[in-house]
Every structure is written in C-alpha cells, then in structure tokens.
Amino acid sequence: MSSDFSLVDVAGWEWDLNGVYAAYLGYFQSYNIAWYDRSWGHLFSSFDTFLGFSWPAVVITDARTGRGHVVTRSSTVQAFVRMIKTRFGEIIPLATDQMTPITAYEHHQRQLRNITDINIYKKVYNTLPAAQFAALKNRVKNGNPKELAQLWSRREKNFLALDFEWSEKSLAVLEMGYAVIRSAHLDASGVWPPMPESNYRKGHYIVQDHVDKIHNRMMPTFPWDYAVSFCVKP
To answer: Among residues 30, 156, 155, which one has the least CA distance to residue 93?
Structure first.
C-alpha cells in the first residue's frame, strides 16, 4: 500500500472489492466455465492473487444498511477486463453486471488506498468497524429513526433527553428539563418496556432570576406546573 496520502470524492466508488471477486467466481460457476483451465485462470486462484492486479479502493459505509465496505470503481474493473483481453486474448464480462452498487453514506472525501495483496486488504478491512461507528454516530446525531429504533431495541444503551425553554425576546434560558434511562439495568431487572413515570430519572429546573418575571406569549411556559422543580440562580 502506497505511503502517499491522497483524498478522493466518493462518487463513483460503488463496487465492493471482495464482491467483485465473488461475482466472477459465481459467474464462472453459473455458466460452467472451467476458469482454472484458462490462460488467465491463475488470476482467480485466490483472492490474494486477484488483488495482485493493484486495486485503488476507499472505505465507505452503505447508506441503506450501514455496513462498511472496501470499494473500487467501475473504471478499475473495466481496466481489469481490458488487461485480460490484451494479455490473454479473451473477453470476460464485467463483474459489476452481476452486482448491486453500493451508495455511500459519506459525502466527504475519503482516503485513497492501493491494494495489491491480502495483507494490505486486511489492514484496510480492519478499519471498517471504526468507519461504521462514525457513520452510526452521525446517523443518530441527525435523528435517523431507523438507527434510533435499533439502538432502543438492543436494550444496552443509556439515553438522555434534554429540553430548554428560552425567552422569546432575549433568548435567556427560563427552564431546563431532563430525563435519563439506563436500558441495560432495566432489562436486567426484567423491566421492559420502561414506564416513564417510574423508570425514568428526571428533573426540572427553573431560573430564579426569570421565573414569574419573563413570560412568553407565542409559546407560554408554566414553570410551576411540575411535581418536582428546582430553582437555580445563574
């Protein structure tokens, strides 16, 4: 793998590199092609040998599934096919005709890698969990319903909800409320789904300097209408 560091746009990087190799083997099997007897057959004898062509690749996560992939471009697959035609005089189809393209979740540039053997591939492949986790955090931060539902169903994370009420005129904070839930603890205690009244840790704070002095008209607040409230001075 080259030590040169360069970034590329993710547009056009949509074919899983291991999937390209698997697609060729699947094609040969489906059409009863004795690839191992062909002059170019050694190129498919193992994934390591296949990588010897030297494949530019980047790491992305699938926008649909959230899974990480080491992907290459259509132009590189086309170059691989042209190489076989030039060196061995035979034409094989594009593996991408048998594959589903991957749409990258990322929109920023990604580091370009040049993969030439299985050891380099493993190093790049080992970065997938970090890429998946970064994408997951971004999805959760953006309020993706699917990711939030999956996190909730795992019953292993802590959840914190915060809410602030501001003055419509000065943007001064008038109230703050929070609710916390420890999913793993409740699940281990046999309590699921949790009941907000009895299973959430919650609190409500009102700002002493503003209470009963600043009133919102568009969205009125009712600072004293809570069973438990704490008055704080900024």
So the answer is: 30
- List Cβ neighbours of 154 (8 Å cut-off, separation of 6 or more): 183
> How far is it, in rounded angstroms, from Cα 158 to Cα 192?
14
Tokens representing 76?
Answer: 């590189």
What is the C-alpha separation between 166 and 26, in angstroms, rounded? Answer: 61
Beta-bridge partner residues of 113: 57
Tokens matching residue 181: 């839930």
Residue where the block lists tokens 């990711």: 147
Do residues 84 and 90 make contact, with C-beta atoms less than 8 angstroms apart?
A: yes
Tell me, rounded to whole angstroms, the distance of Cα 218 from its chain centroid.
39
Q: Which residues contact 91 (CB under 8 A, 6 or more apart)?
A: 81, 84, 85
Q: Return the pLDDT at 2.
A: 47
Predicted structure pTM score: 0.75
Q: What does the H/E/C string look like for 202-223? A: EEEEEECCCCCCCCCCCCCCCC
**167, 217 contact by CB (below 8 A):** no
What would the two tokens of residue 133 be? 């986790």
pLDDT band at 228 (very low <50, low <70, confident <90, very high): low
